[in-house]
Specification:
Strands 1, 2, 3, 4, 5, 6, 7, 8, 9, 10 and 11 form an eleven-stranded antiparallel β-sheet that branches. The chain has helices spanning about 15-40, 135-150, 155-165, 170-180, 225-235, 285-290, 305-330, and strands spanning about 50-65, 80-90, 105-110, 115-125, 190-195, 195-200, 205-210, 235-245, 265-275, 280, 305. It is about 30% helix and about 20% strand. It has a single domain, classed as Beta Barrel (Catalase HpII,  Chain A, domain 1). With about 325 residues, the protein is an alpha+beta fold. It contains seven helices and eleven strands. Helix 1 (about 15-40) runs parallel beside helix 2 (about 135-150) and helix 1 (about 15-40) packs parallel to helix 7. It comes from Chryseobacterium profundimaris. This is Catalase. InterPro entries: Catalase_sf.
């Protein structure tokens, strides 16, 4: 892969202050998950983000026959088995028909022996509104404390105000307008993105999932969870899987997540397919405790970047707390 920028561990190096703030944030995550059952009025502890599951399904990643030779070492099988979770980004499980159009499409990739290759939590908005680790940690700690400790909304508003300047980029404004125009569309008609950066061997990439065809108005009068289940029971779903590669930090920044990458073409590596009626029970113990921690990926597919680095311990704290609580609340019969 000539002229590509190589991965460097300094891309995710945290300062002492950032590590201290992260310890506070991890405690707030644990506190939130411990109270999440009552916050969402359900009989199990939920995630502290993307709490609401729309569907869980089995699928396949089918690799293109003409994939570039330099990428073949990373995708050396004809296909890979997938477990896919579709969700809403809200911290709580709501029962409203009208929900924020912030969707998740998390993908777990395994080989023929069932061994994990990679977790990719994808979302339907390609950018993230915060570049500062300090601002990010303070904001999400405030959000957790707002729900758990019933803190005044003034402190939360003050943290949200610090985020606003990060949204004043051409990329961010363009995508906000695009999302607004699609706000009532069916979840499976959206493109999904990695947002953050991932390794691909010694180099770096972003990921994009683009549906080949899905009715954007499918069952628009139904709750999204019901609509997704109806669609996948009666239809197959296929999406093209693309990656972009990083050549230089000016055009493809690693730690500026509010800016789209440019001057890096999309390379199709395969197709994601969910066959008709391939849903699995999202409420089962095994599936309710699914974790899509990208730091469990093989080393050559690990996340890159400072904001990404925070996911490693955050996922672990969330899962550990959910397992502990759910064995008591729901699954210890």
């Amino acid at each position: 892969m000539p002229d590509l920028l190589k991965y460097n561990k300094d891309f995710e190096k945290l300062t002492d202050e950032e590590r201290a703030l992260f310890e506070i944030n991890k405690k707030s995550i644990s506190d939130f998950v411990e109270q999440s059952a009552s916050l969402s009025d359900v009989n199990y502890a939920t995630r502290n983000a993307h709490a609401k599951t729309y569907a869980v399904a089995k699928g396949k990643l089918i690799i293109c026959e003409d994939i570039p030779q330099d990428l073949q070492q990373f995708f050396d099988k004809e296909f890979y088995d997938l477990t896919i979770r579709m969700s809403n980004a809200h911290l709580k499980i709501t029962k409203n028909k009208k929900e924020i159009p912030a969707y998740g499409f998390a993908v777990k990739i395994k080989d023929e022996r069932g061994e994990l290759i990679a977790n990719y939590p994808l979302v339907n908005f390609p950018l993230f509104p915060i570049n500062s680790v300090r601002t990010f940690l303070k904001l999400f700690t405030s959000i957790n404390q707002f729900y758990v400790k019933k803190w005044s909304s003034f402190s939360l508003i003050a943290q949200i105000a610090k985020v606003i300047p990060f949204t004043f980029t051409a990329s961010f404004i363009k995508n906000i307008i695009k999302l607004w125009r699609k706000k009532n569309d069916f979840i499976l008609s959206f493109d999904f993105h990695s947002v953050g950066v991932y390794r691909i061997g010694d180099y770096m990439m972003k990921i994009k999932l683009s549906p080949q065809s899905a009715d954007r108005r499918f069952n628009k009068n139904k709750m999204m969870k019901e609509a997704v289940e109806d669609y996948l029971r009666s239809n197959s779903f296929t999406a093209d899987v693309y990656i972009q590669l990083c050549y230089n930090l000016k055009d493809q920044p690693v730690n500026q997540l509010n800016i789209e990458w440019k001057n890096s073409r999309y390379i199709k590596v395969g197709e994601l397919r969910i066959e008709k009626n391939n849903l699995i029970d999202p409420a089962s113990c095994e599936n309710e405790l699914l974790s899509f921690n990208p730091y469990e990926n093989k080393i050559f597919f690990q996340p890159v970047g400072k904001i990404q680095k925070l996911r490693e311990e955050a996922y672990k704290v969330s899962l550990k707390t959910r397992v502990k609580i759910n064995k008591l609340l729901k699954y210890n019969k």
